[in-house]
Amino acid sequence: MRVEFDEDTCIGMYQCVAEWDAFEEDKASGKAILEDSEEVEDGVFAREVPEDAELDAKFAARTCPVDAIRIYDDDGEQIIP
After folding, report:
1. For a FRET experiment, which of 28, 38, 52, 62 has its CA 20 to 30 Å from that of 7?
2. Which residues form a coiled coil (predicted)?
């Protein structure tokens, strides 16, 4: 499973931070940060989701009020949102 986070879309509600510890608050920018990720395109960061964190990653994506977090299965198909 893979997660993509669009930092430009993020509005800093930090609901993802409460759901998954891979997200952290960046108070300087007013946005969340996806730790251990790499920028795959301008403003979009991605990383693999460990098996034991899959549920947390899904909750983080579902709680994002602006759909800045997308979850993909191992075949590359988007499953959330």
Report:
1. 52
2. none
Q: Which residues pair with 34 in a beta bridge?
A: 23
Contact 56, 1 (CB under 8 A): no
**What's the rounded Cα separation, in Å, for the pair 61 and 55?**
10
For residues 66 and 51, give the distance between their C-alpha atoms in angstroms, rounded to a whole number. 25
Residue with the two structure tokens 């795959």: 40
**All domains of the chain in start order, with CATH:** 2-80 (3.30.70.20)
Closest CA to 7 of 21, 29, 49, 56: 29
**What pTM does this model have?**
0.93
